[in-house]
Amino acid sequence: MNARNTIVLAVDQSDLTEALGCTSEVVESMQDNGVLESQGQLWEIGPARDYLRDAAWADHHWH
């Protein structure tokens, strides 16, 4: 499985922020924009990591 197909189990928003290393506001924004999608409690975070990597290059969101 490559990094693009990374799936995590996230019970709540804090699990996603920890897995992605970003704020809950950024997680919500990615959900609203369709970058981060779930199947129940399983989340495909590969596209979100790509988004965050690109944002880091533009000096946004990463902490």
Describe this structure in words.
The protein has 63 residues and is an alpha+beta fold. The protein has one domain (3-57). Helix content is 46%, strand content 14%. The chain is built from 3 helices and 3 strands; from the N terminus they run βααββα. It has a 3-stranded antiparallel beta sheet with strand order 1-3-2. It is globular, with a radius of gyration of 11 Å. The model has no long low-confidence stretch (mean pLDDT 84).
Rg calc: 11 Å
How would a textbook summarize the main sheet? Answer: 3 strands, antiparallel
| H and E order | EHHEEH
Please report the total strand number as a whole number. Answer: 3
- Give helix % range: 40-55%
Low-pLDDT regions? none
Distance linking N and C termini? 26 Å
Shape: globular
The chain-level mean pLDDT equals 84
Instruction: List the strand order in the largest sheet.
Output: 1-3-2
- Based on helices, strands and strand pairing, what is the structural class? alpha+beta
User: Total domains, how many?
Assistant: 1
Strand content: 5-15%
What's the SSE blueprint?
Elements lengths: L6 E3 L3 H8 L3 H9 L4 E3 L2 E3 L1 H12 L6
Antiparallel strand pairs: 1-3, 2-3
